[in-house]
Amino acid sequence: MAAPSHRLTAPFGLKLKRLDVRIGVVKLQRKKISHSYGVKVQASSSTMPFASPQSRFASKQEQFFPRCTPRNSGPQSHDSPPKRDTGIANEKDWGINLQNENVNESGTNEDGSTWYRKSGEDIGDNGYRCRWTRMGGQSHDGTTEWKEMWWEKSDWTGYKELGAEKSGKNAEGDSWLETWQEVLHQDEWSNLARIERSAQKQAKSGTENAGWYENWSEKYDAKGWTEKGAHKYGRLNEQSWWEKWGEQYDGRGSVLKWTDKWAETELGTKWGDKWEEKFFGGIGSRQGETWHASPSSERWSRTWGEEHFGNGKVHKFGKSTTGESWDMVVEEETFYEDEPHYGWADVVGDSSQLFSIQPQEQPRGVYPNIDFGSSVPVDDESPPTR
Fold first, then answer.
1. I want to staple 368 with a disulfide (CB 3.0 to 4.6 A). Which of 147, 157, 244, 353 is the partner?
2. Per-residue CA distances from 106 to 57, 79, 103, 122 (Å)
3. In this predicted structure, what is the pLDDT of residue 252?
């Protein structure tokens, strides 16, 4: 199992009937932006909605996990299918509770299902220390299964990491995997403290050609620099969709935001929508495009743009492949956010367990070798290395 790189949430009902993006109509959604711009394009009336997962898995979960972990007969799983489009959860929502001693136990329940729980500590060079706990269980016939792993890492460079991984499957063949991680370290070039958080989530249907994947990432430093982004993918039988977005704040008032969404069917119909904005000191620009392509490769698109001069005047322009166009200067107040709604102070306040990780004691006269890419070899069942 591999930990996510940087960080990428409605439970995956695994009977997908509806998706966020509808064929032919693409909506722009701007997170906490007081002035948003979007362009809609209507495709042919024969198009069908492209669906998002529905949550019928609650009943499966209630049936499955109690069977695997009956009361007072082993570890109780905190696992559940990951939720789509909810971003990166805070550490308090993960319930990470590492054992203070080595544990290696397992058992069999009355219904034949089995469980196990293990914990330990790995020590390596440069003061590397990793404490970990893993547990899991499965039904008597192996058709249902759950696994969960937690870990914390540290070394003498000040590096600290908290992470978790959950996975499972049910009798219908539905499966899921979710990995979460947060890291505290000192930037090699600026010497600033940095916190990075990430999440990778995926689920797959056992009865349909359907599933989804998400990769979320957040980076912060002590001077207010912030970077956030996500990459999402989903499929429901013959229909697929993708979405990417990013935000960057330099901590001094400059901001860049962008979104790119597109979707397609196996018949060859494609459509998409994207936009970007850049601002600093009330001056900046916005631009975007909405497009649609038919199976015969006929393409329609509309592009638009705005130039904000910082004096109350905005130049607006655009055109489409059907011949429409506009070019004008209007009096308009400029709205944008030059600071993230969730920044350095917020993430520090939500990372108390990360900060509380205790590294090995460093002997006098021993100095760390600064190499954030190093790791200690571990077996396949141990937590992912850095």
1. 157
2. 27, 18, 10, 21
3. 94
C-alpha 307/C-alpha 229 separation (Å) is: 25
Contact 220, 226 (CB under 8 A): yes
Query: In 3-state terms, what secondary structure has residue 4?
Result: coil
Q: What does 143-170 look like in DSSP terms, one character per residue?
A: SSEEEEEEEEEE-TTS-EEEEEEEEEE-
251 domain residue, yes or no = yes
What region does 177 belong to: left with phi over 0, alpha with psi -120 to 50, or beta?
beta
| Close Cβ partners of 149 (under 8 Å, ≥ 6 residues apart) | 1, 132, 133, 134, 135, 164, 165, 166, 383
Residue 10 belongs to a domain: no
202: in domain = yes
Q: What is the pLDDT of residue 44?
A: 33
The residues, any chain, with a CB within 8 Å of residue 172's CB and separated by 6 or more, are 14, 60, 206, 207
Is 3 domain-assigned? no
Number of H helices, E strands in the chain: 3, 16
Structural domain for 325, as ranges: 113-356
Of the candidates 287, 275, 281, the residue with the CA atom closest to the CA atom of residue 309:
281
pLDDT one-digit tens code per residue, 35-87:
333 333 333 333 323 233 333 333 333 333 333 333 445 776 655 678 888 89
The domain total for the chain is 1
Q: Say whether pLDDT at 16 is over 80.
A: no
Q: pLDDT tens digits, residue range 340-370? A: 999 999 999 999 999 999 999 988 877 777 6
Least confident of 3-17, 170-184, 231-245: 3-17
Sole residue written with tokens 């004096």? 311
Residue with more model confidence, 24 or 306 = 306
Check: CB of residue 206 under 8 Å from CB of residue 172: yes
Regarding pTM above 0.90, the answer is no
Q: Quick one: which of 171, 129, 164 has its CA closest to 150?
A: 164
What's the first-to-final CA gap in the chain, in angstroms? 12
